[in-house]
Amino acid sequence: MGREVSESCIDGLLTEMVSSYCNRFYSNTPELAARRIEAIGYQVGHQLSERYTMERPRFTDHLEAIKFICKDFWSELFKKQIDNLKTNHRGTFVLQDNKFRWLSRMSGDPSVENGTQDPESKAAQAMSMYLYFPCGIIRGALSNLGIPCAVSADISSLPACSFVIRIKV
Amino acid sequence: MEEYPEELRTPPVALVSLVGCTDHHPLISSFLNAEQPPINTLALPDFSKITLLLSKPTKSDPANNGGILKRDWLLKHRTRVPAVVAALFSSGHVSGDPAQWLQVCTDIENIKNATRPKNIKLIVVVVQSSSNDEISEDRMIALRKRAEIDAKYLVIFNASDDLLLKQSLDRLRGTFAELANVYYKDEGRKIKTRVEKKSFNSHELNVRYCFKVAVYAEFRRDWVEALRFYEDAYQILREMVGTAKKLPLIQRLVQIKTVAEQLHFKIATLLLHGGKVVEAITWFRQHNVSYRRLVGPTDVAFLHWEWMSRQFLVFAELLETSSKTIHSNSNTTLGTTDLAVTEWEFLPAYYYQLAAHYLKEKRTTLELSITMSETADEIDSNAESVAPSIYVGQFARLLEQGDALIMQSLTDEEYTHYAIAEGKRFQDSFEIIALLKKAYETFSNLETQRMAHLCGFHMAKEYFGVGDLSNAKQLLDAVASLYRQEGWVTLLWEVLGYLRECARKSGRVKEFVEYSLELAALPVSSDSGIQSLRYKECGPAGPASLAQREIIHKEVFDLVSGETGLQSIEGNSDLQVNGENPLHLEIDLVSPLRLVLLASVAFHEPVIKPGASTSITVSLLSQLPLPVDIDKLEVQFNQSECNFVITNSESPSAAVSSGQQGWRIESAPSLALVTNKWLRLTYDVKPEQSGKLECIYVIAKMRPHFTICCGAESPASMEDLPLWKFEDRAETFPMKDPALAFSGQKAAQVEEPEPQVDLILGATGPALVGECFKIPVTVVSKDHAIFSGELKINLVDVKGGGLFSPREEEPFSMDSHHVELLGVSGPEGEDESPVGPDKIKKIQQSFGLVSVPVLKDGESWSCKLEIKWHRPKPVMLFVSLGYFPDSNESTSQRIHVHKSLQIEGKTAVVFSHQFMLPFRQDPLLLSRIKSVPGSDQLASLPLNETSVLVIGAKNSSEVPLLLQSMSIEVDDGVERQCTLQHSGMDLLSPAHLVPGEEFKKVFTVIPEVESTSLDLGSVSLRWRRNSEKEDLSTSDAKKDWVLTKHKLPNIKVESPPLVLSLECPPYAVLGDPIIYLIKIRNQTQLLQEVKFSLADAQSFVLSGSHSDTVFVLPKSEHTLSYKLVPLASGSQQLPRVTVTSARYSATFQPSIAASTVFVFPSKPHFTTTDMGDNKLESI
Amino acid sequence: MIVCVAVVGHQNNPLYIQSFTEADDALKLHHIVHCSLDVVDERVNNPKKSGLTLNETFLGLLYPTENYKVYGYLTNTKVKFILVTTDLDVRDADVRNFFRRFHAAYVDAVSNPFHVPGKKITSRTFAERVSNIVKSFGLSSAG
């Protein structure tokens, strides 16, 4: 296609979207905000997968589709591939990106970093809001490929991020 | 296919004729017919017949009449023109008198004359009646010459015995087959030359010749040539469509198509029989493409469609019969290339379905033709006299002229009249249904459900057309459900239109209303992206459009209001909704009428306190095109006291009629449902009863005699609206609050009233394994009296595993229960005796039910639970009390109080044991020295020697314990194989053992039997808690000693071959010499060679040999004697001896403890006193 | 001539269906399109038997019926495109080309942020593009 998008615009849009939903529309119900952000990601993923799979033969199994997400799809979105793919062969896949672009300009709460990990901490919670959007994208892309699934994200050490895909049977 | 004549349907069979000797004919005929390939026979009784048969005049030049194929040509070769004539003569006649011989000659001559011009082959058969019937050679030669035939065609037929008969028959058959083949080949070649030389003046003849060549080839079973010539004929015929001019246009087309049909049939049959399924299908495709556009003039178009339908039908039948024999179409490759044959083209059902389609086309065009011809109002009375002419596909008028019938050719107009008159005679609907049914069944079996349902739909339309409404409805319902499921709205619209008409015609008001409402609520609108369809093809519901929906909406609401009946129904005026015939519709979760009315109900709070009011929102949505006013809404719950009614304040009529069983009445300013807009109503409910409160129905009263009962749905789990979910419409939430819209539920939990009773579990400290642990449970009533109280006791493993099944790591579980509820002892003070078994209903060892007596306000009651731990394990104890605060159980509600307590089970005492050998005596225990790694690590003891066993019991609990006794007991039924004694006396009074303290007791063991694994029995320890409180309690508590058993490990007993004993004084004094004896005793019957060496010791000066080899005689002792002078005081190590037995190649040393001695600096002075009592040895 | 094109969604529901005939056979074409889904199902479930290679998106001729030929195409996202034509001789390359252009138009239509996934396509631009593609069908296989 050759069209280019300013990265800072995307970053700004993402930040603004998260802050709008978390602080303005659903400030007292974070789970609803998460749901809305995920839904936006879902639609984006749904539509992108339609375009990026256009010229290729159909996938025969789940793994092929997941590999597509890891390679071509990720490259289109982030100009890099997923660094590590793991599976338990029973419908769970873990996609690890060692330098997730949308987290590369974020830093965690230093008190969290040197102390023990506290999932309830405010910084981690705020960070997780930014991950609903990429989770939604993955879920949207996969479900459009006929694989209904649940996607969650895990940030153990910034800016690495792993996405856990559980395929519903 | 059935309508084809036999001679066309089946492959040609050679025909031969038999003449003379009539009595043999049946035998020969049946034999020839049964053989493979079969030969048909034409049996003629006498020789005059054959000349009659063959001399039938045939027209010399058929070309002038313009036909293509003669209708009877195939039949003629089947039944009248034999390829071979066999003249049978009895041997008697042949070799008989001159008169007979003359007769034979005449007959032969006649036959020759008859057959020769037609090139029919001749065989002469001489029938011998017996085997010894000799015929002279001369006569035979004469006969052959007469008949002018080869010797091999003069056959002798002998039927006198079976073997000869069989031979004769075989010979006859071989000759027949050979000659028939020659005949057909000759005939074929004759015509083939005509084709090759193009010696004909018309295409018709060309086609005919090709056809004939092909048929002759078929007679010879030369399928390849047959196929080639049929195909040639077909191609030439196709070219004739534009060129042949001999007949008027319509009849010309009819003739060509009829001939093409025959040729195609032949080709398809040959291909299919040859297993060339794909070729046959491709050929049929070609055939279809070539002719399907040759419709001809409109007034006879129906003939074309009928012809098309027949092509499909016949091909379907051919495919069906051949697929029974050939299953080879699986290996044919399909592909995406254009020439590929698709899956369905292998299915006869596919052709049946298309045959039905073309038959329908025929019916429509026929109806059109009939109306056109009726306006011309000429009913031709002469139509009956039209009959098929002698040519295939031609018709002519039969005119009687005296005896003879004369064929007169027809004009196209006459022919058209005739065809229409013929067409009227047939009822096509049933034919169509039959065809569709075949297709429907096959497609259903193949699970190609959409095609099957399309066939079903077409069938239903036919049934509808002929007035069979029940069959139609059944099929339509199935079709409708498929279209609903897949969201094909326009198709559904058409189907529902038919269903609505079925309901209208059969006078079912409810169904009529249901289908009408569904139609009106379908997502059809002019801007829906799906083209608006024209009126004509939309079936009885009219065009699918918003306007039409509104019309249907109005129509149905006029009907349910009672304003109009359905006047449009023929002969049925009773379709009305009024007081006598009220109408009540139900809509559930799967009903297609959810489009019409959807009720979403949500409680604002998931948990409600009894007696407190909470809000509930009832939201209604309708997709009907016009606004609907609701008179009254009833909201029904599972607790009927909560039901309430919402009336429309704008509608006064509703207010009057709403006196329903004292239900609460709410009023709403307006109850108008607007298309695709939620009507949200929020009211309070005040539940009194605890438990689940669920909204079940919302009943909307639309008109005085029309109600819709709609199942309530939770917004959280609401399914998308079927059909509308694919539409691009504004979607709103049923609830304003988005949280409620996502998670609202139609059911809420009503809490129980607050219990006014205390339940106290008093437990002291952790429980000890083995003891019967008592937990007092006290019920104190504070504000409520307690009636029918019941305590439920439940023990649950804290870690989640079972309490009962032995764990994998504990395979030696003695008891099946690790923790057990033993019982409940009665309330203190009230009744001394424990609660009888009738009062405690023990269901399982972890579960109990105890009934609590009636308690008045302020009273209390208590009991003790007895729980026994068999394993150290934490346990959660759940106790729940259920009671009624009122004596009247029916009005009051049961109230529950729950308490739980985690109790640790701990081990009270930990046992340890230790074996000790006799002092300064070391037996050579081979197993101890040469222990095999990995083998059992049993302690080994010397046989018949006294060993010491020290058993310790350590208090591992946190409370002081009292020990009563410790003993070693042997398991029942096992004879003890060793002497076990304990050195001291039994405990006179219980010993106190504070936490961490260990009690030790010393036993002596003398094994009496050599054994690799001797059972020592187990230690029994009697103990109980030693607490100040229990000292005060009743005396029976003292008896309540807990017995804990500990299994001792097995030991190994062996007799030592050598025993090393050291002898030295109990003490030494610095500087005083002492005697140190080392005795090596040989206990075996063998001479033992023993090496010994003595290590130097720093603290002693010694005299004696350091090392040597000695021989010890059997059963004797060798003594090494040393004199030592101690050089240092204190506990000193004696010089250590190392003994090596040559026989056992084993080295052993006395233990360090055994070889020490205490050296006093100067001679001590001792006073000895008698130790009267046995003190506990404590560490 | 192409008489009908359709887009069919995951649940075999029509997302877009447009016929290009003057005659009154739109409903019949709907039926034809609907039945063709049976063949699509069969091709996809038994790829070996139908000889499809490499899970190609183009499914080829689904079935001929009456005067029509029905072609199918299945995207990676399980959306089906159906083409009904009356042409006797259809070149495979033409159909492939048609479907490729149609797919591109479809992707553009559903990438519209105002389009909700799974709903019918109501875009007028899409309709215009489709009618252009239909008009140019078979004119040049190069384009």
Automatic annotation (TrEMBL), chain A:
Signal peptide start and end residues: none
Cellular component terms (Gene Ontology): cis-Golgi network; trans-Golgi network; TRAPP complex
Annotated GO biological process: endoplasmic reticulum to Golgi vesicle-mediated transport
InterPro entries assigned: NO_sig/Golgi_transp_ligand-bd (IPR024096), TRAPP_component (IPR007194), TRAPPC6/Trs33 (IPR037992)
Pfam family name, one: TRAPP
Family, similarity comment: Belongs to the TRAPP small subunits family. BET3 subfamily.
Protein name as catalogued: Trafficking protein particle complex subunit 6B
Organism expressing this protein natively: Populus euphratica
From TrEMBL, chain B:
Name of one Pfam family that matches: Foie-gras_1
Residue intervals of the Trafficking protein particle complex subunit domain: 252-521
PANTHER family assigned: FOIE GRAS, TRAFFICKING PROTEIN PARTICLE COMPLEX SUBUNIT 11
Protein name: Trafficking protein particle complex subunit 11
Organism field: Populus euphratica
Gene symbol of the encoding locus: LOC105130082
UniProtKB/TrEMBL annotation, chain C:
Keywords noted in UniProt: Endoplasmic reticulum, ER-Golgi transport, Golgi apparatus, Transport
A Pfam family annotated for this UniProt entry: Sedlin_N
Recorded family membership: Belongs to the TRAPP small subunits family. Sedlin subfamily.
GO BP annotation list: endoplasmic reticulum to Golgi vesicle-mediated transport
Record's protein name: Trafficking protein particle complex subunit
Lineage, top ranks: Eukaryota, Viridiplantae, Streptophyta, Embryophyta, Tracheophyta
UniProt-listed InterPro entries: Longin-like_dom_sf (IPR011012), Sedlin (IPR006722), TRAPPC (IPR007233), TRAPPC2L (IPR044760)
Domain of life: Eukaryota
Main subcellular location of this protein, as a coarse class: endoplasmic reticulum
